[in-house]
Amino acid sequence: MTSSKNQELNQFEGKHYLVLFDGVCNLCNSTVQFVIRRDKSRQFKFASLTWPIAERVAEEFPQIKGFDSILVYSSGKVYDRSSAALKIAGGLGGLWPLMGVFWIIPKFLRDAVYQFIARNRYKWFGKKDYCMMPSPDTADRFMPAK
Q1: pLDDT tens over the chain, length 146 residues
Q2: Residue 93 domain-assigned?
Q3: Which of 69, 77, 101, 139 has its CA 20 to 30 A from that of 89?
Q4: Range of the domain at 17
Q5: Number of domains in the chain
Q6: What does the angle CA 120 – CA 139 – CA 118 come to, to the nearest 5 degrees?
Q7: Please, which residues bridge with residue 17 across strands?
Q8: What Cα–Cα distance (Å) separates residue 108 from each residue in 32, 78, 136?
Q9: Is residue 146 part of a domain?
Q10: Position 25 in a domain
């Protein structure tokens, strides 16, 4: 990775998170809006899985190439499926970090539930024809699309 690529990802060290999501999925978009409303410390940034920063994360973690729901990148690690959801919950305020009790459930079981929902998300929640555009008051929470 070049130095400019490193700098872009280095901002997600410590308690800062990059949430990569399916920009056309209504469930994923609702999840992003849910996180924005509850992230009072503004530690989460967002980008569609089709944006260049997602490609840079995939260069570092080739196993996520082709991934199509939510991923979380933080402190040089990538979290997928149920682990991404638990990482997000842990970074929110209020009672959401209590969801951390689910870390004790084996990943293959947590991921089976996650995969069931992910497989049916378009059927249950719908899909947009294009990636959502952030509102002016949340635009700074999204990484550049270019």
Answers
A1: 444 556 777 778 777 899 999 989 999 999 999 999 999 889 999 999 989 899 989 999 998 888 888 999 998 999 999 999 999 999 998 899 999 999 999 999 999 999 999 999 999 999 988 777 778 888 889 987 76
A2: yes
A3: 139
A4: 3-141
A5: 1
A6: 10
A7: 44
A8: 24, 17, 39
A9: no
A10: yes
